[in-house]
Amino acid sequence: MRTQVVIIGGGPSGLLLSQLLHLAGIESVVLERQSREHVLSRIRAGVLEQGMADLLRQAQAGDRMDREGFIHDGTQLELSGVGCRIDFRKLTGRAVIVYGQTELTRDLYDARDRLGGRVLHDVQDVTLHGLDGDAPYVSYRVGDTRQRLACDFVAGCDGFHGVSRQSIPHALRREYHRVYPFAWLGVLSQTPPVSAELIYVAHDRGFALCSMRNAKLSRYYVQCDPADAVEQWPDERFWEELKRRIPEAAADRIVTGPALEKSITQCRSFVAEPMQWGRLFLAGDAAHIVPPTGAKGLNLAASDIHYLATGLRQYYQDRDFSGLERYSERALARVWQAERFSWWMSTLLHRFPEHDAFDRRMQRAEQEQLIRSDTAQRLLAENYVGLRY
Ligand code: RFL
Ligand code: PHB
User: Fold this and answer.
1) What pairing do the DSSP bridges indicate for beta strands 280-282 and 124-129?
2) Most buried residue among 103, 216, 252, 381 by CB atoms closer than 10 A?
3) What is the separation, in whole angstroms, between the first and last Cα of the chain?
4) 130 and 261 share a domain?
5) Do 169 and 215 sit in the same domain of this protein?
């Protein structure tokens, strides 16, 4: 079997890439380890930058997002008891869209189905071969049958725990890693959101976030210990802790209910360089992770895919290698900006167990600067709505 581009991973990165390539007349096959139901059961990101939204429309997968997504012109910050609204529209002329990753992934699957795209599920033991030559191929197993798929290029869109990144020789790979001393406990509940805008809270007891998926579905987070297990957080404990951290008026009106989903995510920053080796190109979480505070993970995956799809189109249309050769450099320039922003916003809003009195004063001073300075607010807003591609 042969195709032009093998895409490892059927998450948002892989599906978006295969859809954009298809629309440019480039053939691909997506190899996904899990079932479609499993991929669609993961509750993750919720905030889309304009660049990602535009890309989804370009991929003919943006109709439902445009109908059902919510445009947010700003966000609320509650910084050690002081409220502060960041007005994205006023400060940048742009906004973000609140639309869940689960829905977006479903829309991409539907778009792939409509065009007859090839997405293979339950694919095991994916192995990449010949990446440093001009005849790469990928082998994998479905049930008891081992298959081999020859191609021109391999796109590694298989997330942080995937195999693609490991296929780049260790000596040629540089990895940057920061594990934070906290995690996020997230709850999805069938209740109306407490506020029309997201509320990011820095509190002495730890960070909290009020977010949403739609008018009837809320998503809330509290900072917790990375060693905590979900079982230690029965619903009552979660709601009680959330109410202690969020502004009093919000705590008074919040509607609570059973958790439909509850999960704990360790906060980390991670970048692997370079994002290309021979015929292999890494994109999305396969190459980088951000702590979720700036809502950048999914949006960074989208900008990678934009650069990669552009490079592949140039190659297939004009035999011009230059976009592919510059892929890693272009993608990484934007990745590092988003890494900085996510790290900064995490540092601003979380409680660090190792912080001493001086560290806490520095954090408070930074929060105060944001409350009083338009310039500081503009910087936050520019990064939050997303740097241009
Ligand atoms: P994904 O979504 O992880 O998809 C990768 C896909 O590859 C498959 N796979 C393999 N397939 C074949 N062979 C193998 N060997 C494979 N190994 C893995 C996996 O099954 C999966 O389907 O990466 P992608 O497409 O790059 O998309 C990136 C986004 O998913 C990610 O950046 C965000 O969801 C990050 N993230 C969040 N971002 C936000 O902006 N806001 C959030 O609130 C937020 N919450 C989260 C998150 C990521 C989480 N992870 C990765 C644990 C919460 C969690 C729990
Ligand atoms: C979410 O709704 O899941 C969400 C929103 C904003 C973030 C992180 C997660 O910064």
Assistant:
1) unpaired
2) 381
3) 35
4) no
5) no
Residue with the nearest Cα to atom 42 of ligand 1?
45
The Å distance, Cα 145 to ligand 2 centre, comes to 40
Please state the domain count of the chain: 2
Q: Is any atom of ligand 2 closer than 6 Å to the C-beta of 47?
A: yes
Residue with tokens 């998503």: 219
Range of the structural domain that residue 184 is part of: 179-267+351-385
**Does residue 201 line the site of ligand 2, with CB under 6 A?**
no
What the block records as the tokens of 179 is 């594990």
Closest CA to 8 of 89, 110, 128, 114: 128
Residues 54 and 124 in one domain: yes
Tokens of 313: 């189109």
SS3 of the chain: helix, strand, coil, percent, to 5: 40, 30, 30
Residue 363 forms beta bridges with which residues? Answer: none
Question: What is the pLDDT tens value at each position of the chain, 389 positions in all?
Answer: 999 999 999 999 999 999 999 999 999 999 999 999 999 998 888 999 999 999 999 999 999 999 999 999 999 999 999 999 999 999 999 999 999 999 999 999 999 999 999 999 999 999 999 999 999 999 999 999 999 999 999 999 999 999 999 999 999 999 999 999 999 999 999 999 999 999 999 999 999 999 999 999 999 999 999 999 999 999 999 999 999 999 999 999 999 999 999 999 999 999 999 999 999 999 999 999 999 999 999 999 999 999 999 999 999 999 999 999 999 999 999 999 999 999 999 999 999 999 999 999 999 999 999 999 999 999 999 999 999 98
| Position 77 in a domain | no
Residues 143 and 215 in one domain: no
**Is residue 260 assigned to a domain?**
yes
Task: Say whether 384 is catalytic.
Answer: yes
pTM of the entire predicted model: 0.97
274 as an active site residue: the answer is no
CA 217/CA 308 separation, integer angstroms: 34
Q: Which ligand is nearest to the CA of 188?
A: 2
Q: Which among 35, 55, 162, 157 has a CA at the least distance from the CA of 107?
A: 55
Amino acid found at 15:
L
Measured CA to CA, the distance from residue 274 to residue 324 in angstroms comes to 13
